[in-house]
Design a protein that fits this description.
Layout lengths: L9 E7 L6 H16 L3 E7 L6 H11 L3 E6 L5 H11 L4 E4 L10 H9 L5 E9 L4 H17 L8 E8 H10 L6 H8 L3 E8 L11 H15 L3 H30 L7 H34 L6 E5 L2
Parallel strand pairs: 1-2, 1-4, 2-3, 5-7
Antiparallel strand pairs: 3-8, 4-6, 5-6
Helix pairs in contact: 5-8, 9-10
Amino acid sequence: MTREAPNPLLSVVVPVYKEENSIKPFLARIEPVCQKIAGDSYEIIFSLDPSPDKTEDVIMAEIQRNPHIRLLVFSRRFGQPAATMAGILSSQGQHCVAIDVDLQDPPELIETMFQKLGEGFEVVYAQRRTREGETWVKKTIAEFGYAVINKLSDVKIPRNTGDFRIMTRRVVEELRRLNETHGFLRGLVAFVGFKQAAVLYDRDARFADVGKYNRLTGSFKIGLNGLVGFSSRPLQFMSLIGFCFAMIGFLLGAWYVFQKIVGIELTPGLSTTVLVVTFFSGVQLLALGLMGEYVGRIYDEVKRRPAYIVDRKVNF
């Protein structure tokens, strides 16, 4: 009579897209860490958005070398957030780590994060002290984004953090219950709650090439998901702005009526009218666009389409 193997102690989830030059260097650093923490009780799950390069071939060759490596291949490109969530929800480990393959986040830090879990925490996230290899534009956008999200959102997301974190199986199962179409991992983990802690580190420059996921627009989209997905305050804010501008319009109209009644020569109005109409039109379009973001997400949730579709699983 055969007996099923127990779930591994550690799962490592790695979203990848066009990363053929990063796979081997990443494994060379992550495998010793996994072995030190869990012995042979670990799995490394690559979540692959179909790539035009040889990323899949490189991973398949590594699976032949190391049976602890697994591969998820999607039916089409679904993006990094979906790939990360797919790997997490497919993992079987008692503890699950999400990390990028580009080695900006040092795999060696996982050991410290794992030890921190032993102090009674359910989530330990890596928090950046410095960010090497990133432009000032991206750093500024990141700082501004975190400030806005934490000011308006119902859940607080630690600044200078990414998806690099370790979670217990309890947290993974709670993430499974949420079942949201737009998977903003940082926000979802913050929403789940439980005891969480940070480990500070200095982020390195990218190991090879440049990021293949669309970093600027992708970061903006992720940040927008974090804001819209966890707060209705932007709608309230636009309502307040609308009320204030309506009052300005009312006072401006009252001023023109007063000038007419008392016989004062009217203020020249053509340029003023154009300016006011243009300004208020812009505000209205901004409000409609913001409402559209919420309505679009409601539409996605109502349709209940899956956030990703797996083409095949290898070595699961």
